[in-house]
């Protein structure tokens, strides 16, 4: 049986909140498009089969990687030596908080939202806070690398000042992300679709689609466009600078940059393109065919999952590629193995070799803010 929510889905697709099964609810849509009936039960069925296993995989894999980053910073390093160290720790925390929301959305995809309106608001806001904060922190990392690689002398002369500044920048990032998540705290609530409750954004009738377009525009501009423009500029200048150097590791550094940019574009651009199309649909109703609407929604579900995989990849792109971090990971693994009563000989040998070379360890620490390839791979 087709519900009134399904009728609305002709005119306004799922909200920018990625887990809605129907869009912002406004009474004006009922009057204007009452004759357009579209049963989207197949979309919900597809979501119920597709999202839960994938979201659990993303949550588990991303959780393990990001928890390793946090554990290493808090237990092995004990001190944040560079601006990028501060940004990486905050990025790992942001990704972890984002990944915590995925099991609840997976449960909603299978059985509807059973956790109440308050947790709906909290989970929606938590998702949006960490979406914005992680994108802004990735931007901060690119700016820091630009300063260290392109303006080397300035970076070396202001290490302490930059490290203090990084804490203030992170505070501003989190506050701005909280501000941008305000719509979720205000408008996210539970709504019934085909006798099941779902968590979604519901706007009062007098606000209409204009508020939906505004929220979608904020997500696309602050969550993708602005970070991408800044990252593209910073990494382009860095590559030009590296091409002029004679550092034998510059090719490895440029490969790291290329992978970072390509992964960001491939994972984020398609889904943000979907959000732009949703805004266009809310503005002038670009699609009216029911089958086309349902295909669009299914493609959106797949591209959304692709975007979320970035939370799994961040530890590998920004932390584990570095020599220092790989050594810390080996030390973490040794601790885990020793707790299980087994200590691999190779790990022990590598760590003992590292401990016998305090000079090289000190050199790596000192160079972390000045050496091009070290800083690019941290």
UniProtKB/TrEMBL annotation:
G-protein coupled receptors family 1 profile domain boundaries: 65-318
Key word Zinc present: no
Signal peptide residues on this chain, from the entry's feature table: none
Cellular localisation: Cell membrane
**Region entry Disordered: which residue ranges?**
347-378
- InterPro entries found in the cross-reference section: ACKR4, CCR1-9-like, Chemokine_rcpt, GPCR_Rhodpsn, GPCR_Rhodpsn_7TM
Spans traversing the lipid bilayer: 54-74, 86-105, 125-147, 168-193, 213-241, 253-271, 305-323
Q: Which UniProt keywords apply?
A: Cell membrane, G-protein coupled receptor, Glycoprotein, Membrane, Receptor, Transducer, Transmembrane, Transmembrane helix
The UniProt entry's GO CC annotations, sorted and at most eight, read: external side of plasma membrane
Offer one example of a GO biological process linked to this entry: positive regulation of cytosolic calcium ion concentration
Q: Which family does it belong to?
A: Belongs to the G-protein coupled receptor 1 family.
Q: What is this protein called?
A: C-C chemokine receptor type 9a
Instruction: From the UniProt record, report the name of the gene that encodes this protein.
Output: ccr9a
């Amino acid at each position: 049986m087709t519900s009134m929510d399904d009728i609305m889905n002709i005119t306004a697709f799922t909200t920018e909140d990625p887990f809605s099964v129907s869009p912002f609810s406004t009474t004006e849509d009922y009057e204007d498009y009452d004759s357009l009936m579209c049963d989207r039960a197949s979309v919900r069925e597809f979501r119920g089969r597709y999202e839960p296993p994938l979201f659990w995989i993303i949550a588990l894999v991303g959780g393990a990687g990001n928890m390793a980053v946090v554990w290493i910073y808090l237990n092995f390093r004990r001190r944040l030596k560079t601006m990028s160290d501060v940004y990486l720790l905050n990025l790992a925390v942001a990704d972890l908080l984002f990944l915590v929301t995925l099991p609840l959305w997976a449960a909603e995809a299978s059985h509807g939202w059973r956790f109440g309106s308050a947790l709906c608001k909290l989970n929606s806001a938590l998702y949006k806070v960490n979406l914005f904060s992680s994108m802004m922190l990735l931007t901060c990392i690119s700016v820091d690398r630009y300063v260290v690689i392109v303006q080397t002398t300035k970076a070396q002369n202001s290490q302490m000042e930059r490290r203090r500044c990084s804490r203030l920048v992170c505070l501003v990032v989190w506050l701005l992300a909280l501000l941008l998540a305000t719509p979720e705290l205000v408008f996210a609530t539970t709504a019934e679709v085909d006798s099941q409750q779902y968590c979604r954004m519901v706007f009062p009738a007098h606000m209409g689609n204009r508020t939906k377009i505004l929220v979608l525009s904020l997500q696309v501009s602050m969550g993708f466009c602005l970070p991408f423009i800044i990252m593209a500029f910073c990494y382009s200048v860095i590559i030009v600078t590296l091409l002029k150097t004679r550092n034998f590791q510059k090719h490895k550094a440029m490969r790291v940059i290329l992978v970072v940019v390509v992964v960001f574009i491939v994972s984020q651009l398609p889904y943000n393109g979907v959000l732009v199309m949703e805004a266009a649909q809310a503005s002038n109703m670009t699609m009216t065919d029911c089958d086309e609407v349902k295909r669009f929604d299914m493609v959106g579900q797949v591209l959304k999952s692709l975007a979320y995989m970035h939370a799994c990849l961040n530890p590998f792109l920004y932390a584990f590629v570095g020599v220092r971090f790989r050594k810390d990971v080996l030390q973490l693994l040794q601790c885990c193995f020793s707790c299980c009563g087994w200590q691999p000989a190779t790990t022990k040998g590598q760590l003992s070799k590292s401990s016998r070379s305090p000079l090289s360890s000190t050199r790596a620490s000192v160079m972390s803010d000045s050496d091009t390839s070290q800083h690019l791979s941290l």
